[in-house]
UniProtKB/TrEMBL annotation:
Upper classification of the organism: Bacteria, Bacillati, Actinomycetota, Actinomycetes, Mycobacteriales
GO terms for biological process, alphabetical: iron-sulfur cluster assembly
Name this protein carries in UniProt: Folate-binding protein
Protein's UniProt keywords contain Ribonucleoprotein: no
Alphabetical list of SUPFAM superfamilies matching this protein: Folate-binding domain
Keywords recorded for this protein, A-Z: Transit peptide
Length: 451
């Protein structure tokens, strides 16, 4: 993580995002920027810059800069910040060191997911930061207000302050990310480009960079900068040879990595063990008491801590049982007249077996989606080889840009559909935890079922 200390950024007022009204200034400032088409969720940031599928190639070949300023940022500061937040969330952050990033959940009393967020602790920039640390929580806009309200209500007598930070998020992904960041942070220029002072060549003052390992690629950096400076910051990245890349490409990478958007991909019954990215893999060990110095995990749940709301459900499933559903990636029939929308029912015959979430077009795989589906359906699919081709992968050529057809998604066992559109579970990104549960083994031994 790094913090930019100097800048010539002009501070202009920029709208704070809300789920329905936010419009990024980059929609007007960057050539080709286009909103998501009708029928898609509207984010208020560029869905693409004129080449929807081609822009995703920057993630593979160079570096793509993505405007994610629709995300909102909560700032928590004060002497009790780490211990206070640690008592409320699923992650262990009481030993979170400066410069580190992790993730967390807030659960309800029954262990259902209410909020998911990224947690960033900036590098120490002054002596007081060690005694009064600051954390940034990056949240989806639809759930941000409820998250802020809940955390504010839980302050009581703790020495913490909770308020929205006027920061915008940009993500850079691709093999050239480190080179782009070196140019942008140090004021160097991309090869062959002349030095300029307007627009700026360096990132604005107050920019914080952090790494998030859950994006699906290690070649990525996220930047938080003052909202009034987002246009200057994005321009500095483009001057450093990053390619303007729409949110559609980022969403495709997120779906391929099976990372959920709480608003689109989860429902009010979701528990953490249904999401591999939340629990982490492998996660077969029994829960136990954490030590004080244990740092956070790279996932959303630390299995060796307790005393937070909903923790009993996490512990019970980890030690004794299995989650009732799983979040999986689907291939979607690209020739169907009906494009599934988040929240629609996934059916097997006439029986509802799940719900569809994010649906997006990938530059290689065509339409793909995330969905929550009954674990029993996944078990039958994996065990029976359903939805697989001769090589064990998803039927059809995965490198083709042609959309998946109904025939190429034909099943060997269970036919899954959303409103008449055929789906296929992707076995390459679907993992079943079949390891023995330590708690169950102990119970069986106590009851004399096992020696």
């Amino acid at each position: 993580m790094a913090t930019r200390e100097t800048s010539n950024t002009k501070q202009n007022p920029v709208e704070t995002p809300t789920p329905t009204t936010y419009q990024s200034p980059l929609l007007d400032a960057i050539n080709g920027a286009a909103d998501a088409p009708d029928g898609h969720r509207q984010y208020g940031v560029a869905w693409h810059y004129g080449n929807p599928l081609g822009e995703q190639r920057a993630f593979e070949r160079s570096a793509g800069a993505v405007d994610r300023s629709h995300q909102r940022v909560l700032q928590i500061s004060g002497a009790d910040t780490l211990s206070w937040l640690n008592s409320l969330i699923s992650q262990k952050v009481d030993a979170l060191a400066p410069g580190l990033t992790t993730h967390g959940l807030i659960l309800d009393a029954k262990g259902h997911v209410e909020h998911a967020f990224t947690i960033v602790r900036p590098q120490v920039s002054s002596p007081t930061d060690s005694d009064e640390p600051t954390l940034y929580l990056v949240s989806e806009p639809e759930t941000f207000d409820a998250l802020q309200t809940y955390l504010t209500q839980m302050v009581f007598w703790s020495a913490v302050s909770v308020h929205e930070a006027n920061l915008a998020l940009i993500t850079v992904i691709g093999p050239d990310t480190s080179t782009v960041m070196a140019h942008a942070l140090e004021g160097h220029h991309a090869p062959g480009t002349p030095a300029t002072t307007t627009p700026p060549d360096t990132l604005p003052e107050g920019t914080v960079t952090f790494i998030d390992s859950l994006v699906g690629t290690e070649d990525s950096v996220h930047l938080l900068m003052p909202r009034p400076a987002i246009t200057d910051a994005f321009t500095a990245l483009i001057n450093a040879d990053a390619k303007p890349t729409g949110l559609m490409a980022y969403e495709a990478e997120r779906v391929k990595a099976v990372i959920p958007d709480v608003h689109a991909d989860l429902d009010s019954r979701t528990v953490p063990h249904e999401i591999e990215a939340f629990i982490g893999t492998p996660a077969n060990a029994p829960t136990q008491r954490a030590t004080v110095d244990d740092g956070p995990t790279s996932s959303y749940v630390h299995l060796n801590k307790g005393c937070y709301r909903g923790q009993e459900t996490v512990s019970r499933i980890q030690n004794l049982g299995r989650p009732p559903r799983l979040l999986v990636k689907f291939q979607v029939d690209g020739y169907s007249a009906h494009r599934p929308e988040p929240g629609e029912a996934i059916t097997a015959g006439k029986r509802k077996v799940g719900r569809i979430g994010t649906v997006v077009d990938d530059c290689d795989e065509g339409p793909i989606a995330l969905g929550l589906i009954k674990r029993s359906i996944v078990e039958k699919t994996i065990a029976g080889g359903a939805f697989t081709g001769p090589s064990g992968g998803v039927s059809g050529d995965p490198t083709s840009r042609e959309p998946h057809s109904r025939s190429s998604l034909a099943t060997h066992a269970i036919a899954l559909e959303v409103g008449g559109t055929t789906l296929a579970i992707d076995p390459d990104t679907t993992h079943l935890d079949e390891a023995p549960k330590a708690g169950r083994q102990a119970v069986d031994k106590l009851r004399g079922k096992t020696p």
